[in-house]
Amino acid sequence: MIRVGMLTSGGDCQALNATMRGVAKALYKMYGSDVEIIGFEDGYKGLIYADFRILKPSDFSGILTKGGTMLGTSRQPFKLMRTPDENGLDKVESMKQTYRKLRLECLVVLGGNGSQKTANLLREEGLNIIALPKTIDNDLWGTEMTFGFQSAVNVATNAIDGIHTTASSHGRVFIVEIMGHKVGWPTLHAGIAGGADIILIPEIPYDIKVVVEALKERNRQGKRFSILAVAEGAISKEDAKLTKKELKDKKAKGVVYPSVAYELGAQIQEMTGQEVRVTVPGHMQRGGEPCPYDRVLSTRLGAEAAYLIQQKEYGYMVCVKNNDIDKVPLREVAGKLKVVDPNSSIIREAKMVGICFGDEKLKEKD
Ligand code: F6P
């Protein structure tokens, strides 16, 4: 009999259940009743405080299409893992104890950047770890694709689609702010898929004058409306040059906006005289059911995790490489961010069809 622990950590996404189902179904197929799966509640918290339940094969039925996570999740910052909790409990030691007491063969961690760092820490502490790449942000180094990303892009694209008709009726400028933390992947993909005229992402700091000029050019061409897809982490060229502290001081002195989209909206309204509206789909992007792409990806990643367990190949994150399922050592993944390359072909192609990224004046007319 082998015992496999499983937890979902960090912000949720649509395909967590689908991925756990992939792992479980493959394990049950390999081991039959000789495998027991232990689910930890609310991410690493469940491992720290030994809050778990034994899962049955029936728990994994009917969850392929269910968003969220049946185990619950929480954010347990990596930087605080070595800091004792309010009762002086050593979190890392406690996680190791839970793992050992339960006599786990290994722990399967479904998580994004911070969660992978903790997974790697546990690996360094001698635990058998298999990690799975979760995040709507697609910013995990070592994998071409994370599960949750495509579903989130679908939601964000639907938001832009929904804005199109009302934008054209009113002849307004619309800004749709898209999640993605410090990277622009969801905004870039949803922006292209939704036909946004301007896409602003953190990796390509914008010049507000270039943005305004692109809007004016559209007006000159007789276009009644414009849509901007703006990443929550988008930043101006000016601000990108500042240190964290300088930026904080600058923001403290000026008008406080709820987010970058509102700041941009105010600037555009003032500089063009056009009516601007802001839409923020926010956490809706993590909600609802996984799209078919994610269901397939999750099933494949999950099955591969089960295979690694069978082979006793630990210390890896299952990943997508060259459009196929592969594995990458966790020690290589932890602490690295996968950002959009401003010189990549997708950016070049988007520019070729007339999308403005706020960095340079478009050469061709849209
Ligand atoms: O990492 C996923 C993500 O949705 C980011 O896109 C976003 O910045 C963040 O999580 C929001 O975090 P929270 O759910 O804690 O508000």
Q: Please identify the structural class as seen in this structure.
A: alpha/beta
Gap from first CA to last CA = 64 Å
**Tally of individual helices:** 13
Poorly predicted parts = none
Strand neighbour order, sheet with most strands: 3-2-1-4-5-10-11
Secondary-structure element order, N to C? EHEHEHEHEHEHEHEHHHEHEEHH
Could you tell me the CATH topology label of the largest domain: Rossmann fold
Total strand segments: 11
- State the helicity in percent bands: 25-40%
Q: How would you characterize the overall build of this protein?
A:
With 366 residues, the chain is α/β, with parallel strands linked by helices. The chain has two domains: 2-148 and 290-333, Rossmann fold, CATH 3.40.50; 152-286 and 341-352, Phosphofructokinase domain (Rossmann fold, 3-Layer(aba) Sandwich). It is 40% helix and 16% strand. It is built from 13 helices and eleven strands. The protein has helices at 16-31, 44-48, 91-101, 113-124, 149-170, 185-193, 208-220, 237-240, 244-253, 260-272, 292-310, 330-333, 345-352; strands at 2-8, 35-40, 52-55, 106-111, 129-133, 173-178, 198-200, 226-231, 276-279, 316-321, 324-329. The chain has a seven-stranded mixed β-sheet with strand order 3-2-1-4-5-10-11, with helices on both faces. A four-stranded parallel β-sheet has the order 7-8-6-9, sandwiched between helices. α4 links the parallel β4 and β5. α1 (16-31) runs parallel beside α11 (292-310), α5 packs across α6 and α7 crosses α10. The model has no long low-confidence stretch (mean pLDDT 96). The structure holds 6-O-phosphono-beta-D-fructofuranose.
